Amino acid sequence: MPCFHQLQVVEMLSRELEFRGINRHHLGMYFEELGGKSENSSFPFIYKGDGWSGEILSEDELEFTKVFKVNAVHIRFTAETESKLEELIKLYRHKTTRVGG
Fold this sequence. Notes:
By secondary structure, the chain is of the alpha+beta class. The chain is built from two helices and five strands; from the N terminus they run E-H-E-E-E-E-H. Strand 3 (45-49) and strand 4 (52-63) form a beta hairpin. The chain starts with 12 loop residues before the first strand and ends in a 5-residue tail after the last helix.
């Protein structure tokens, strides 16, 4: 008698953002502070949380002048629902906010 297994397919929603001037290691720590667990140790760096994941896809250096250079890190946020995705991005952006003084 054949045995059949039912698979549940969950379509995830994702959005990619770029963060400039923030150390890549700090960006990974922010995912951990939001409850994510690091899955690997090379690009793309993957962090998985409850119903979401974050991927640090790449890091580039932008040269505005010969002396003014800034890093640009590309991150993909993925979640099960639009509301969970929005909440993840909102919380992550709070961690990346820099206030001058």
